[in-house]
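Why do we care about 3D structure at all? Because function follows from shape, and shape follows, mostly, from sequence. That is the central idea of this module. The next example makes it concrete: a single protein chain, its amino acid sequence, and then its structure expressed as tokens.
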Amino acid sequence: MSDSVLVIGGGIAGIQAALDMANAGARVILVEREPTIGGIMAVLDKNFPTLDCSICIEAPKMSEVDLHPNIEILSMAEVDGIKGEAGNFQVRIRQRSRYVTDACTRCNDCTEACPVVLPNEFDSGMASRKAIYTPIPQSVPGDYVIDIAHCLNDPPNYLPCDRCNQVCLSGAIDFLMPREVILTREVSSIVVAVGYDSFDPRRLHEFGYGDHPDVMTALEFERLINSAGPTGGEIIRPSNGEHPKNILFVLCVGSRDQRAFRYCSRFCCMYSIKHAYQALDHGIEDVSVLFMDIRAYGKGFDGFWNRTEQAGARFMRGRPSRISPNGNGAICVKYEDTDLAVKVEENYDMVVLANAVAPPVGLADLADRLG
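And the structure:
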């Protein structure tokens, strides 16, 4: 029987599982399909209810995983197939190439030289990156990565651009790497910690996402208030670059909805309350939260909700019927106040949608491979 364990998913759950097992003496193979481990927690600003810095908590754990002698990190990799039985699995892993070797010094000269500009998915598309980049400053592995799907080069035979190569003094760029390699590992057990994706609110037209640039998802707002985000932590309206005077947070967008997901996503209430508190802390004059029900399920959560309300946030129980541009640059929100059983129409400078949690892309295929 092998003493190795496979962990699929390099978010905070996979990181903690890998560390716990490695510290207990097991050998761990950590498979992550993105260029860096860390998952969603790595791009958050603060955690609720303590408002501790998110990356300050996770970055030391990421570094510990990177340096741990019992942990092997396979980034940009996915499980391709599994054979065997409990205690003796043979795992086939498909790993894509970074086209950058571990000689990379993270000097950033290649990024500055690269002519290809793309939306940065780690900033929810609210900022740009280059075709050669590092996802976040604390990335593990730390080597830069080339987005070969958008690079001007198509290795190994078509290499019209060598700007990154010219400025890389360490010679870390290698376009002759194979596009992918197939690895095999023998493990005794498998831990699945694949995280989640966010529901696309464009599927529900009444929420107005995509109709006005100041209607945004919770993760987009999270990047706005993050000091490492596209605005340096300043809350500004994407439409005009001005500070909003009022913000509405709308809960249960796609959750508890027969048209999308019937389940409650559980933590959306609390991160929206956190966002409301942070908006007030940033000087927003008028902050409102439109909720179906508040589920404050953990230690200190009720207290944090009360603290946010006492700080000035207005909580209204209701459901929106239509969120749309009002024609004057602001956003018109029509909703029913279900406590008073009346229809209400109000204008806001910014609307933030707490969109539902969805299974990650490819989970069904992974489930089939795992049997």
